[in-house]
Every structure is written in C-alpha cells, then in structure tokens.
TrEMBL record:
Protein name as annotated: LPS export ABC transporter permease LptG
Superkingdom of source: Bacteria
Record InterPro entries: LptG, LptG/LptF_permease
Keyword check for Membrane: yes
UniProt source species: Qipengyuania aurantiaca
C-alpha cells in the first residue's frame, strides 16, 4: 500500500472535492476584496474622462479581474491547503486515514493531483485570457482611460532611438508598414545629448522612409518659441522592422508567441535575459500551485489536542510565503542578469520542493 498513492477512489474524490471548494472560496474572497480596493483607487481617474460611466467601470473590472486571479491563485491554493488540512486534523480524519495504513504521501496525493490540475488550468487561463486583458488594459491606461482600443497587438509606452534623437508613443498598433502610433513625441537632440526641439503629435504613420507626424506642435528650446503645423516627417532611420522589435511585453504575449519573438531579438543581437526568464516563469509560475500542499503539509499531522496545531499552520504559511518571496527575488535577479534565466525561473520551485519533501519525510515518514 505504501507505493500506491491513490489506494481509495472514494477518499481521493472526497479530498479533491474538499480542496477545490476551498480554493474557489478563498480565491473569490480575495478577488472581490482586492477588486473593490482597486476600484476605489482608480475609479476617479476613469470617471474623470468625459463620457465614461458605469459601463467603463465594468469594463475595467472585467480586464482587472483576470490579472487578480492570475496573481492570487497560488496564494489561494496555499490558504486552501492550510484550511483543508487543519480541518481534517481537528476532526481526526487524518488520524483515521493513518490508522487505516495510509502514509503521509498518500494522504497528500489527492491534494497534490488537484493542485497540479489547477496549475494546468491556470496556465491556459493566463495565456489565453490574462495576456489579452493585460495588453488591452495597458493600452487603455496609456490612452488615459479614453476609448478602449479595438486593434490587436496594441503596445503601450514605446521608446525608440534614432541616433541621438528619440521618438516615443503612448500607443502603437499594427505591424510593418501598417504601424500606427498615437500621442507621439519627437525629441531632436544635439550630439551632446541636450534637447534641441520637441515635437508633439496626435498620431504618426509610416512615410517610407521616416514617420509622418500629424497635427503637430513644435517647441524650439533655444528660441523658447512654439508653433503648430499639419505634418512633419522625422526618424528616417527608423524602419518598421526595428519598431516591431522595439518592445515586447512578456505579460501581454502568450507563451507560444513569446518564444519566437525572443529568438528574433536574439538574432538581432538584443539582450533577452529578462524576457527569457519571464518566458520560463510562465511555466514555473502556474506550477507553483503544485508546491502548496507539500509546503502546507506540516499542518496536517501532529495531534490537534497537543496545542501545536496553530504553530504548525503558521509554519506551513511561512514556508508558502517564503517561496513567493524567493521566487520574486530570483526573477528580479534574472531580469538584471544576476542569474541565468532558466535558474531564475526554476531554482525556487525545485528548492522549495526539496524543502517541503524533506520536512514531510523527517517529521511524518
């Protein structure tokens, strides 16, 4: 029986159902509370735009909720693990399972399997729903909560260099010769790097070569004079191919599209350490749900009447939150080049899997 991780189908279904219900309950509670706080913080900015109302607030909520689900699903699995295991321990169900001959791993196996399924569902949800919501929300924020852009492949806050000159766009849509920019600013700079002229424009399109700015407002620094005009062509050294590689937001690009884009960056000789680390983290992040039952397992065992159940629950919570801290720190180090991308994304997962397994074996097996 020690090698059979699922000796009872009835017990497996019971524990899996118990675990799923608690994960959903904790997740709904966290998302509702955090969404209300988020609306309190941003609703004033959204409603300050003329024409915005309740519909725009609902649109914002529909775009923000997927992000909250992505971020707090692993926390929900951790809290649901502790709630489930503490309840089972208090009701002596763990003692009954161990008295029937089940090992600690067999008690946890249904929870681990459920957490693995949750991680798979989370991965699909993140790459199919969250990436699109993130791209739209960032583009809407860049448009200062104006009309939600309907175009695909919207990028926000793009920064482009043409020699010493700089072209920035709050919003960029399309690709190739069909690229369109909105809220554009052109900074003409001297070889020493000081700004000589600033040109603001409502939009910009490809002029082949260069980019045609429309409805411009020019400001010459030396003369401290401003003027307006219909159009101006700038940035003749900027090609559509360069702009296509100007900026990739890993949070807004699905896993299967991000890989080829990173390879294109590498072929162009660009740094890809940060993007590669986040690409790997798209796998290790959702899979962190699998770790939570293992890290919280310390709360399942030990006698509830011994008075140490609360301490065990705190230890499980501390292990779980320590993983998130180390994971974020490793990802940050990978972004700055301190760790190789693969190590930055996967080292915390395997480290805490080893810690959780060691604690479980040393204390219960």
């Amino acid at each position: 029986m020690q090698l059979d991780f699922f000796p009872s189908a009835t017990l497996t279904k019971y524990l899996a159902k118990l675990f799923v219900v608690r994960i959903l309950a904790v997740l709904v509670m966290l998302v509702l509370v955090l969404m209300m706080l988020d609306l309190l913080s941003n609703s004033g900015k959204i409603l300050a735009v003329e024409g915005n109302g309740q519909g725009e607030l609902l649109t914002y909520a529909s775009l923000r909720v997927p992000q909250l689900i992505q971020r707090f699903l692993p926390y929900s699995v951790l809290l649901a693990t502790l709630i489930s295991l503490v309840t089972l321990n208090q009701n002596s169900e763990v003692i009954a399972m161990k008295a029937a001959g089940l090992s600690a791993h067999q008690v946890l196996a249904p929870l681990l399997l459920t957490a693995l399924v949750v991680g798979g569902v989370s991965f699909v949800f993140n790459e199919r729903v969250v990436t699109r919501a993130t791209a739209t929300l960032k583009a809407w924020d860049a448009a200062e909560w104006g009309p939600v852009p309907e175009e695909s492949s919207v990028r926000a806050n793009v920064y482009l260099a043409d020699g010493s000159n700089v072209l920035t766009a709050a919003q960029l849509t399309g690709s190739g010769d069909a690229i369109r920019m909105r809220n554009v600013t052109w900074y003409r700079r001297s070889p020493e790097g000081t700004i000589v002229e600033q040109v603001d424009a409502e939009r910009a399109t490809y002029a082949g070569p260069g980019w045609r700015l429309e409805n411009i407002e020019r400001f010459e620094v030396a003369a401290a004079a401003s003027s307006t005009g219909d159009s101006l062509v700038v940035g003749e050294g900027l090609t559509p191919d360069q702009i296509d590689l100007a900026k990739i937001d890993p949070e807004a690009v699905p896993f299967w599209e991000l890989g080829p884009q990173i390879e294109a960056f590498e072929d162009a000789g660009r740094r890809t350490g940060e993007m590669r680390a986040k690409w790997w983290h798209k796998l290790s992040g959702p899979l962190s749900s699998f770790l939570m039952p293992l890290l919280g397992a310390v709360a399942a065992f030990g006698l509830a009447r011994s008075g140490q159940l609360f301490v065990r629950a705190l230890i499980g919570m501390a292990l779980g939150f320590a993983y998130f801290v180390v994971d974020n720190a490793a990802l940050a180090m990978g972004s700055f080049g301190g760790y190789p991308p693969l190590l930055a994304a996967w080292a915390p997962f395997f480290l805490f899997a080893l810690i959780g397994e060691t604690v479980l074996i040393r204390t219960e097996e």
